[in-house]
Amino acid sequence: MTEPILLVTGTSSGIGLTTAVAAARAGFTVVATMRDLAKSDSLRSAAATAGVELDLQPLDVTDPASIEGCLAHIRSTYGRLDALLNNAGAGHVGTVELESVDDVRAVMEVNFFGVVAMSKTAMPLLRESRGRLLTVSSVGGVVGQPFNEAYCAAKFAVEGFMESLTPVAATVGVRVSVIEPGAVSTEFVANVGIERTLAEGTPYDTALRAYLARTAAAFDPANAQTADGVAERIVEVLVADDPPARVQTSDAAHRFVGIKLGDLDGAHVQAVTAHWVTGT
Ligand code: NAP
What we know:
Mean pLDDT: 96
Radius of gyration: 19 Å
Strand content: 5-15%
CATH topology: Rossmann fold
Bound molecules: NADP nicotinamide-adenine-dinucleotide phosphate
Number of helices: 10
Shape: globular
Number of domains: 1
Number of strands: 9
Helix content: 40-55%
CATH architecture: 3-Layer(aba) Sandwich
CATH superfamily: NAD(P)-binding Rossmann-like Domain
């Protein structure tokens, strides 16, 4: 049996980078992809430090030709694919009155339709290998969070899509899992490029400032999970005989998602998240 082949999206930084390296250490042949290979220095250096080799390929999950090109490379080079990790994603902070519908569409494009397009294109190969389909969702795929309307909508969409697909995929031998991290210390917040002035002069200014103060504390490396910690959990799921359909990657994520799952009238979630925007 040759090494299993794993495709990871969004490996230029963060969870994708650490998981690509951790999976290679665990014995996977990893096709590590990113939009712009010019941004591959951190990944190359992490792989060298870990003593593993990766197959670096260009891939933009919002570009059908790029997706097809990457899958064609996998078919011709390896003739199989054993696992796909949909990791690529991007945060977004805003609220409906302050943003355009196109802003929301762009968030859906990368975080949801990118996942759909990747999964659709990879599914024939995953079916042949009776493989694994993993998607990095978020606790924001379960609990709606202030100023994350578009991002949480996209991650909720991912969760609904995958929860519906899971029993269907199982009938053809493909196991589906969603991964739900809480706050993880990566480039994620910096990449959102949040402007403190986003709501200046609007009725949302005070609430946004409270939210940003709360976010800074949550993502402080002293409080957030490490990307290595998330990668370790993802590799456990990749090699598990009976992988769970949904996985929280930390105790904090487990507790937070747990608030929602028994919250039949929505009161418990609101009791928690309302404080994020009042600063109380
Ligand atoms: P990150 O360091 O910002 O990494 C995001 C990765 O996605 C980058 O490699 C980025 O590539 C890539 N990406 C963005 N748009 C893409 C596209 N169109 N095609 C291909 N790749 C694209 O953040 P991260 O924390 O590792 O995020 C990874 C996943 O975890 C995301 O799905 C995110 O929603 C999820 N997540 C993160 C947290 C957290 O607290 N950090 C919590 C829960 C869930 P470029 O360098 O080209 O932009």
